[in-house]
Amino acid sequence: MKLLILLSVFAASAIALQKRYDGYQLFQVTPRDRASYDALVQLYEQSEDYDFWIAPRAIDIAMDIMVPPARVATFVDLMHAFRMEYRVKMIDVQTVLDMAREERAQIPRVATPRYSVDWNTYYDFNAISAFVNEIAAAHPNLVTVSSIGRTHEGRDMPLVKISSGGAGKKAIVVDGGIHAREWISPAFVTWLINELVENYAAHPQYVDNVDWYIMPVINPDGYQYTFAPLGDRLWRKNRRPNNNGIGGSSCMGTDMNRNFGFHWNEGGSSSNGCSDTFHGGAAFSEVESQHVRDAILAVAGPAEMYLTFHAYGQYWLTPWGYTSALPSDYTQLYNLAVSAVNELTAVYGTQYTIGTSTNVLYVASGGSDDWAKGGAGIPFSYTVEMRDEGLYGFELPARQIIPNNLEVWEAIKVMAESLF
Ligand SMILES: [Zn+2]
């Protein structure tokens, strides 16, 4: 008993050693003119002090910016200088993280779980790795798991192929977890694997008509770091050190979603190795993005669709990210997104904005969706920013996982049916 108490005290203090966000505030800011917008873009690109939970998109579109306590006064001055519209969404980010963790701790565990994960709470990379192997063992006729390679820290990166066999089928490539802190992403992608396989009998057409190549976590080191006792719940990048800080100083991690090699480093990413949007020393400089590239190229022939899952903001985005110009088949991409989002919204009324490049001023180059379309030649490429709109942001309560997944599944069905 004494040992148990000791262990639980240790567990609590270990969590307390994660990076803390006491006094950090989350601001929602809406630029109403070009000068305000440009000032915010400058902050986004040049300062490593401000963490943009939602990046700048355009004038009149709100962005969420986390400001450290030492910068709050300066930031508010800036808001006033530009007469910007702003409000404080989180007065103390640490409180929000603590409350979410306490809430997860109260969630009852299933006594005899079928798999190492369920969708009542969030699970770390080890549990997700165990899950994909368990479901493959339970359904060898439908599921094959392989490793696309190892991460910088030596973790195997799983690829789940779901297929009922037969040659010449079209394929859909899905990934999640490229941004470590976006926990709903692996929580959806693992659910998708489960739905396609465990509920195959209820809707065999989604597996019989198309092959799926699913990578539930493509930034395992970063994702595991958001769970680690000495880690950081709000970590975004991978975990390979670089020397690209100011003056060649040492910094940690590359934004994998700015590291893909199609119009790499053409705006909307940072050359500062300490920035949250650091694009890496070169296109595909990171071993994880290299493995993802190679895994996608290996199936690029049959692949007609690429879906990459992020949070948050509720956007269904089409390429291009690197330019405001539209792809030549934009009408088809847009129309399919409209049909899919209509079905999504029909479930609970959740609104998604379809990212038309025309109303997006801001560019973000080096994204996996741009490369999937422009580099790998996969025509239907989408980035999906799931729940919410910033009430909880990255700390989407675990009780919203299943509702989120059910509504996004309706959109996925429409997406898949378009290839039948
Ligand atoms: Zn993201």
TrEMBL record:
<keyword id="KW-0732">Signal</keyword>
<dbReference type="InterPro" id="IPR003146">
    <property type="entry name" value="M14A_act_pep"/>
</dbReference>
<feature type="domain" description="Peptidase M14">
    <location>
        <begin position="121"/>
        <end position="419"/>
    </location>
</feature>
<keyword id="KW-0645">Protease</keyword>
<keyword id="KW-1015">Disulfide bond</keyword>
<keyword id="KW-0862">Zinc</keyword>
<comment type="similarity">
    <text>Belongs to the peptidase M14 family.</text>
</comment>
<feature type="active site" description="Proton donor/acceptor">
    <location>
        <position position="385"/>
    </location>
</feature>
<feature type="signal peptide">
    <location>
        <begin position="1"/>
        <end position="16"/>
    </location>
</feature>
<dbReference type="Pfam" id="PF02244">
    <property type="entry name" value="Propep_M14"/>
</dbReference>
<dbReference type="InterPro" id="IPR036990">
    <property type="entry name" value="M14A-like_propep"/>
</dbReference>
<dbReference type="GO" id="GO:0005615">
    <property type="term" value="C:extracellular space"/>
</dbReference>
<dbReference type="GO" id="GO:0008270">
    <property type="term" value="F:zinc ion binding"/>
</dbReference>
<dbReference type="GO" id="GO:0006508">
    <property type="term" value="P:proteolysis"/>
</dbReference>
<dbReference type="GO" id="GO:0004181">
    <property type="term" value="F:metallocarboxypeptidase activity"/>
</dbReference>
<keyword id="KW-0482">Metalloprotease</keyword>
<dbReference type="InterPro" id="IPR057246">
    <property type="entry name" value="CARBOXYPEPT_ZN_1"/>
</dbReference>
<keyword id="KW-0479">Metal-binding</keyword>
<dbReference type="Pfam" id="PF00246">
    <property type="entry name" value="Peptidase_M14"/>
</dbReference>
<keyword id="KW-0378">Hydrolase</keyword>
<dbReference type="InterPro" id="IPR000834">
    <property type="entry name" value="Peptidase_M14"/>
</dbReference>
<keyword id="KW-0121">Carboxypeptidase</keyword>
<protein>
    <recommendedName>
        <fullName>Zinc carboxypeptidase A 1</fullName>
    </recommendedName>
</protein>
